[in-house]
Amino acid sequence: MMLPWQRMRFTGTDSVNPVPLNFRREVSGENQLNTVGDAGHSNNTITKEVAKVKRRNEKLEERLARARASMRRAAARNFTLATPHDDISTGTVYHNPHLFYQSYLEMEKILKVYVYPDGELPIVHDGPCKDIYSIEGRFLHEMEFGVGRFRTNDPTTAHVYFLPFSVTWMVKYLYTPSTYDVTPLKHFVSEYVRVISKRYPFWNTTHGADHFMLSCHDWGPHASEGNPFLYNTSIRVLCNANTSEGFNPMKDVPLPEIHLYGGEVSPKLLSPPPDDAPRPYLAFFAGGMHGPIRPILLHHWKNRDDDIRVYEYLPKDKDYYSFMLNSKFCLCPSGYEVASPRIVESIYAECVPVILSKNYTLPFSDVLRWEAFSVQVDVSDIPSLKEMLSTIPESKYRKLKHGVKAVRRHFTLNQPAKRFDVFHMILHSIWLRRLNINIKLR
Question: The Exostosin GT47 domain covers which part of the protein (predicted)?
């Protein structure tokens, strides 16, 4: 399966026709007629309304087609040319820095997001802004209340539509722990989609193909099952980006999991030590024994080696972030679900992440070459972990560490948001998926 960037790299045409770079999803507009008809309009009104929507879509698609053509031209540039703006260099951390930079500029010029106003607090229009699911609330708050250029109050000008509910707050307020039943979450999502599809024409026009939801909770995928089109057609932005559980990288977006204790990044991670500072430990991990991978890691390495410091529970006299800042590599095994906040913590600490996971689509992998700033180790190779890491040449380690420094800006939460930070990278991932949708009314 090829991701969006892989198709875009090798596209050479400058046509302004709305030919997607990756794949085409043609969506019939038949339900638009039903929606308007249900509202009691005459046939003449229905015809005018459909024509109006068709003209709007054609205008939107023309602008998107021009953006695609501009991106194709950028993708064809000589890779040895420098990119002179915003420090998006020709370094190896990007699949194609010219394409990424041009795509980002086109997003800034064009992309408009409509946030549905429907729904009530706390489950809608709010989300957690601290602890393990903080990215969910922080994105939602920035989208709703930030001063950015992307939100529009006119839904007819929007390219994508945001369903602003929080799965984490659904779990908190709707879920009964003793039942282990996620049905209430599915019912809430089902009802929310039903409401917006009755009040607005946009969901029915595309069967939700230009709509997105965002969730960092492990049960985000389960909640999305509340509507089959949301699950199968819409853009789902998920921390739990597990391809073996229905995550589709062609339309869904992997979301980085960022653990903010108390709502802020630890001050220790704001200023990592200089490059020439010694890092006495080869690798580090501390965490509970849950999921299928961590027990294997702990079995082979817990308290067994002075170079690879692996703990199930960190002793009270030890500091978690100090270990990260003093380690060359930070082990990032999946827990019950594929995502791990340790990946972003490692990047903040400028400690090269070692990804121990299965079926995980890594965040921003449309744009970023993870092999340029991380090490991915197969679970079967955990017994050989020390040998694998210790035989990495110092020159390669320095390149990996330099890559970590280069991508840090893309995983940083700013308030207010800044260009190329994690908020904008999430939007850019959504933008890439939207570019590959060709909406047609018949």
Answer: 108-391
Q: pLDDT tens for residues 205-261?
A: 999 999 999 999 999 999 999 999 999 999 999 999 999 999 999 999 999 999 999
Q: Where are the beta strands (DSSP E) in 86-208?
A: 113-115, 160-162
Q: Which two tokens stand for residue 305?
A: 């080696």
Distance CA 279, CA 328 (A): 6
Rg (CA), the chain: 23
Nearest-angstrom CA–CA distance, 214 and 221: 10
Q: Which residues make Cβ contacts (< 8 Å) with residue 26, sequence separation at least 6? A: 438, 439, 440
**What's the rounded Cα separation, in Å, for the pair 182 and 301?**
36
Pairwise CA distance, residues 8 & 74, whole Å: 10
User: Which burial class, exposed, middle or buried, applies to 149 when counting CB atoms under 10 A from its CB (0-12, 13-18, 19+)?
Assistant: exposed
Q: For the segment 188-204, what is each residue's pLDDT rounded down to a tens digit? A: 999 999 999 999 999 99
Q: What is d(CA 142, CA 97) in angstroms, rounded to the nearest whole number?
A: 26
pTM of the model: 0.89
